Amino acid sequence: MSRISYECLKEIAKKTKAKLAREGFFIKKTQRIIPREAEKEEMLYQMAINRLKKYPPYKKGKTIFLPYFSRKDGN
Amino acid sequence: MLKNNYNIPVKEIQEIAKIEDPVKKRATFVAFLTREFKRRGAKEPVVVGGLALEIYTQGSYTTGDIDLKSEKEILEEILIKWGFNKKGRVWFNENLDIYIDWLGSSLEEGIEAEKRLNTVIIDKDLELKVISIEDLIIDRLKAYKWWKDRDGFMWARILCEIKKSLDDHLDKDYLKTRAKEEKIEDVIGKLLKE
Known about the structure:
The structure holds two protein chains of two kinds. By secondary structure, chain A is mainly α. Chain A has a domain of 40 residues. In chain A, a hairpin with a 2-residue loop joins β1 and β2. Chain A has two helices and two strands. A seven-stranded mixed sheet of chain B has the order 3-4-5-2-1-7-6. By secondary structure, chain B is of the alpha/beta class. Chain B is 50% helix and 15% strand. In chain B, α1 packs antiparallel against α2, α6 runs antiparallel to α7 and α6 packs parallel to α8. Chain B has two domains: 120 residues, Beta Polymerase, domain 2 (2-Layer Sandwich); 61 residues, no CATH class. In chain B, β6 and β7 form a beta hairpin. At the A-B interface, α1, α2 and β2 of A face α2, α3, β6, β7 and α7 of B.
């Protein structure tokens, strides 16, 4: 079994994406045409709600503050 | 293909290259871009589409690129200076691993949507303009109904929860008006019942 580091994979992905872009191919946004299983969809929904609870946004006037982006646990 | 010989000359842009979290990287990049537009006295760019959803959900939804509305000439001037290349309507910078899909200079949703834009603060002195949550709900529901994007309805539900979390009322009248224009009254009806 071969071993490959995450950093190495990241670099390969970045270079591949750039090579394709130079040739005019951009990775298209995917849309989910096949419905998810209900359990999977519920899990994704719950993950988003949990993040909302963990980083509760707040609003002052027309300005929204999003604490996730200024968190100090890593970047 | 438009090419340039610039390296990345701006300290802020070099900072972006160090950010590991791709969600934070994209948002920070747009905040720097917004600052540069303001410095030049230009109308700030507006985040729409997938990145708007990524920002409001604070990364629960992820996208690959930056969907942006902005004045074309100023955007081009800045991006060339910042070491970007262009192919079609997409601008990209290999080192930063950032891809910008320029979607025009104004919102097709109209003047009312322009008035409803939110300023989003992501950190000290870092802000950006994002399409309103109501307009983004309509965008996702359109994808759900017309492009058969099965996740669209779920993201619309999550956006409703974000509105609640902000202690901000969901403008149902506006949603219904927009839904009528987009012929998605049935889907908005289903969402508002929940």
